[in-house]
Amino acid sequence: MIRKRLLVLGLCLCLFSSGVMAEELEKEIIVQGIKCAKGHVDFYESGKLRSVGLSQDQEIQGIKCAKGYVEFYESGKLSSIHLSQNQTIQRVKILKGISVSFYPSGKLEYCTLSQDQKIEGVKFRKGTFVHFYPSGKSKNISHRKTKRYRSKNISRRR
């Protein structure tokens, strides 16, 4: 529910009872070091960026992010992105253009593999979706043409 709505210099700023603030950007601008696209941007009550559309591919926290929507935790760490190119993050080779998510600690939560690789000593094919625990161990792993496997059953993979 909107608690308060303000119109200031062509920017619509909405304050929500949840503590989130939203703003409509009239043009592309830089907000907290991020090149933001025209349109919707959300902030935490603290004033830190929560979510925004990127106006172009750009590097954020050492990760090459694709133009489009990104989310942040209140700490400022990345929460959810799409990569602008295949890249290795935390020793995992990740496919561009597919959603990548992080835990508040900054560790990978889930991603899709960009090439064949070993994770926890088991080889997986390109295109495999991997979901991790906050500790970094794989929670489950799946591929479009295979069944889902829990990490304790990885050795049974065909």
Q: How would you describe this structure to a colleague?
A:
This protein is mainly beta and 158 residues long. It has a domain at 86-158. The chain is 0% helix and 54% strand. It is built from no helices and 19 strands. The strands form four sheets. Strands 1, 2, 3, 4, 5, 6, 9, 10, 13, 14, 17, 18 and 19 form a 13-stranded antiparallel sheet that branches. A two-stranded antiparallel ribbon has the order 7-8. Strand 4 and strand 5 (34-43) form a beta hairpin. It starts with a strand and ends in an 8-residue tail after the last strand. Residues 1-12 and 145-158 have low confidence and may be disordered.
Q: What's the story with the biggest beta sheet?
A: 13 strands, antiparallel
Radius of gyration: 18 Å
Q: What overall geometry do the principal axes of the alpha carbons give?
A: elongated
Oligomer designation: single chain
Q: What are the salient characteristics of this protein?
A:
disordered C terminus, mainly beta, 158 residues, 13-stranded antiparallel sheet, disordered N terminus, single chain, 54% strand, 0% helix, 19 strands, two-stranded antiparallel sheet
Secondary structure layout plus pairing:
Elements: E1 2-8, E2 11-16, E3 21-25, E4 29-31, E5 34-43, E6 49-54, E7 58-60, E8 63-65, E9 68-72, E10 78-82, E11 87-89, E12 92-94, E13 99-102, E14 108-112, E15 117-119, E16 122-124, E17 129-132, E18 138-142, E19 149-150
Antiparallel strand pairs: 1-2, 2-3, 3-5, 4-5, 5-6, 6-9, 7-8, 9-10, 10-13, 11-12, 13-14, 14-17, 15-16, 17-18, 18-19
